[in-house]
Design goal:
Layout (H helix, E strand, L loop, with lengths): L3 E4 L2 E4 L4 E7 L8 E7 L6 E6 L5 E3 L7 E6 L4 E6 L8 E9 L2 E4 L3 E6 L1
Parallel strand pairs: 2-11
Antiparallel strand pairs: 1-3, 3-8, 4-5, 4-9, 5-6, 7-8, 9-10, 9-11
Length: 115
Amino acid sequence: QVQLVESGGGLVQAGGSLRLSCAASGTMFSFAAMSWYRQAPGKQRELVARITSGYRTNYADSVLGRFTITRDNAQKTVYLQMNSLKPEDTAVYYCNAYLASRDYWGQGTQVTVSS
């Protein structure tokens, strides 16, 4: 069982930065692929960034070069550094863990970017 708690969301002006954190419980964190998804009002949830247990990363085209995903296995935490934020980045951001063929989700954190 994995529980995920996100933090770090908030209101920021366009061009600003935020860092999201996702703290995980359980002992298997280092084996999980960790991802950040987001869901804007009226839109489907979409993958933003993923980091595997082997530290390989991939990003949505819309955030490439602006967002960076990292993980700290000792702290059982995954981060999303978001720079050069745009109004279209406004969404609820969800942390996801994929482990042993199961998906686990956090409760989400709101990110609002004002123009």
